[in-house]
Amino acid sequence: MSAGTAAAAAEPRTLAAPAGLVSDVTAITGRAVRGILREPELFLFALVIPVFFFVVQVGALGDVAKRAFGVSSYAAFQLPISILFASASTSGGNALVLDIANGYWDKLSVTPVRRSALVIGILFGEMFAVLGYSLALLLFGWAIGVRFAGNELVGAAGLLGLTLLFGIGFAAVSIAVALATGSVRATQSTFIIFFPLLFLTPSALPRNLMTGWFETAVRLNPITYVVEAARSFLFGFDAAVVARGALAAALFSLFTFALTALAFRRRVRMG
Amino acid sequence: MALSVGASRLDSMTTAIEAIDLVRHFGQVKAVQGVSLEVAEGEIYGFLGPNGAGKSTIVRILTTLLGPTSGSGSVLGHHVVAERTTVRRLIGVALQEAGLDPKQTGRELLTLQGRLYGLRGQLLEAQVREVTELVGLTDAIDRRIQTYSGGMKRRLDLASALLHRPRVLFLDEPTTGLDPLSRVLIWDRIRELRARFGATIFLTTQYLEEADELADRVAIIDQGRIVRQGTPAALKAEVGADVIDVAIDERETGAARAAIKELQSSGELPGGELRGTERGYTLFVPDGPGNIAVLIRGLDRAGVRFGAVSLSRPTLDDVFLAATGGRMAAAAERAAAEQERTPEPAGRGPA
């Protein structure tokens, strides 16, 4: 068939039409959530280390903590740490960097999708994962007797909200590294920065018992206030502490979103 | 030297793809060095060259994934940088690496792709069904992609590029790494695409027979430059002769060259082009069957030790040889060695 004949028989118009940001984000989020649900083993692995730390800490220090720190339930004291730990185990950056490495990012990028939807959709998928980790650990805590100070549902919702705010911020870090480097190894290593962020906090004992450089480092660490706010739901609601923790989590997330935006702009710039 | 052969019919047709003096550098690496081309609507345009010649970089520029260092490109009159969103709606792209999410099923991948092109409801379902049938994946469409063979992934990638009925389709080495059967299957699908939808197809390939088989016109690219352009028949006719390859021992190449030149100057052999190759010499002569015996007798008489002698009709590889002085396989090896010495810096990603 000659080109001319073919052109004459051609469908004159493409079927493509503008989809809209909401539609784009919904489609990308749906794919991210499917990916998470299809790897339940990763979900379980992400819970193993936080639960292990929880068991070891509570087993080793539980009785001591009651006497030395005046903490009524060391399990309740440690549970927020485990939840924040798990919420930092999200794999959005890993999924994204694999897309970049295997060419699927390019495949999506030659469509008319709004570029921001490619990242927002992954972040929403990460929120789903954080919610799953948090719920699983809350149920675990509830099963071993951890209870919220006031209304159980309100306390749980508050803790989940705070964890989501923190978790989404942490997911943004790994997404930023994935976008900036395109390196699987660098993205997987993002987890390392979580250790100083989470353990230079009142993770093992209350802040008023700390001294010296450690106390200074803990005071300067914004995650300290997230941890204290999370505990506030379990040991007695304090609006000021919760507000301060929510603000710290929001600022942390804003900072990491800014990093992600910079890395995103660099990647999508046309050379 | 004329670069274009048989392009006059373009005059009466609408331009689907145009590149004007495209240049793309990656640091010190000059991947594309002033490429200009024009593809008519409804045409299958073969872009032929060895690995590292610059084919994929040009495709990435024309498909809006990469900005040019200088020069400009357009698709159906829309600038690939300034109007990239419009261009993206008009084109379908199957890139060299069939990047597909292995955790999704084929149907999920196509549905997601369709939604990003703004397809909805029954139209989306109908399109998924249509392209699935077109590429012959109906039985496997609800399986996870991680269970697909390489050929199936390529066909799914092709299907995803077709969902929105693009007017221009870019296929970047669609059959590289496939077995011969899968390759022929993809060729059939490409022909069918043009027949059914009249799509313009920009096809890059490193397979000579693929360009020969499918393309209305071919551009041959080497080291970031187009060295020949025209219909396969016209390009081969430009070589204008049969091709005699003769393998010569490395120590005998000087003597062989002298002997062949002597045969040509004495008039025993007609004065055709003589090219040194990796294995010996290639001689372009009219009436190959008649002259092969003259060549053998002449070499024998001069005491030159030679190996296999073969006669063939000119191929696109011969066009490549005539244009660049080397075979495509050698050019690919050279490009690979060059890339090892100066690895391409991490290119900016898509816009």
Q: Can you describe this structure in just a few lines?
A:
Chain A is mostly helical. Chain A has 13 helices and no strands. In chain B, the strands form three sheets. Chain B has a seven-stranded mixed β-sheet, with helices on both faces.
Describe the overall structure.
- The complex is a heterodimer of chains A (271) and B (351).
- With 271 residues, chain A is mainly alpha-helical.
- Chain A is 76% helix and 0% strand.
- Chain A has 13 helices and no strands.
- Chain A is elongated, with a radius of gyration of 22 Å.
- The N terminus of chain A is likely disordered.
- Chain B has two domains: 233 residues, P-loop containing nucleotide triphosphate hydrolases (Rossmann fold, 3-Layer(aba) Sandwich); 73 residues, Alpha-Beta Plaits, CATH 3.30.70.260.
- A seven-stranded mixed sheet of chain B has the order 1-11-10-4-9-8-7, sandwiched between helices. Chain B has a four-stranded antiparallel sheet with strand order 3-2-5-6, covered by helices on one side.
- In chain B, a hairpin with a 3-residue loop joins strand 13 and strand 14.
- In chain B, helix 3 crosses helix 4, helix 8 packs across helix 11 and helix 9 packs across helix 10.
- Chain B starts with a strand and ends in a 10-residue tail after the last helix.
- Chain B is α/β, with parallel strands linked by helices.
- Chain B is 39% helix and 25% strand.
- Classes of the chains: A mainly alpha (271), B alpha/beta (351).
- At the A-B interface, helix 1, helix 2, helix 5, helix 6 and helix 13 of A face helix 2, helix 3 and helix 6 of B.
Count of alpha and pi helical runs of chain A: 13
Strand order of the largest sheet of chain B: 1-11-10-4-9-8-7
Number of helices of chain B: 12
Order of helices and strands of chain A: HHHHHHHHHHHHH
Could you tell me the radius of gyration of chain B in angstroms? 23 Å
CATH class of the largest domain in chain B: Alpha Beta
Biggest interface, residues from each chain: A-B, 48 and 62 residues
Shape of chain B: elongated
Largest pleated sheet of chain B? 7 strands, mixed
- CATH fold field value of the largest domain in chain B: Rossmann fold
Q: What share of the residues of chain A does DSSP label as strand, in percent?
A: under 5%
Question: Largest sheet of chain A, if any?
Answer: none
Q: Quick one: how many beta strands of chain B? A: 15
Coarse morphology of chain A: elongated
Instruction: Domain count of chain B, please report it.
Output: 2
Radius of gyration of chain A: 22 Å
Q: Quaternary arrangement of the chains shown?
A: heterodimer
